[in-house]
Amino acid sequence: MFKLSEIKELIKLLDQTSIHELEIENEGSRLLIRKPHKTETVVMNPAPAPAQIVTPPSVPPTRPAVTESSAPAEASSAGQAAAEEAGLHRIVSPMVGTFYRAPAPDAPPFVNVGDRIDEKTVVCIVEAMKLMNPIEAEVSGEIVEILAENGQLVEYGQPLFLVRRH
After folding, report:
1. Is the pTM of this model over 0.85?
2. CB-CB contact of 32 with 20 (8 Å)
């Protein structure tokens, strides 16, 4: 069985190279990571194992987020098409990690629906390997929709916010 921390590290390393596919087998488990346009991870085990999501004790998630490996790709492509038709910009996660809307559990969220933002506005934090990474909007506009839940595990390239550009 592969540990989540090991998978995250492999994805990070693969993302920094020109290698497009990596396959590893270990004790009956197989890990396949492909990188055509974005990193895609598939873990196959002979017997299903319960998913473990580890979050910092200071920030409890609003609800656990466990998704099937094919669901993000389908939801992402459907959401992408709808967003493009509506002329909305997607702010996506630049890494695998845990999504947080606020800098601390008792602090207000960085942004809410209806807020005006600019390129340097911090919209959330994605925690990866115990590092808190502030994510900037990189566009000016208005937050139309927040697509991730506080404390949710997010994938590389997963849409987090929809923004109407101004």
Report:
1. no
2. no
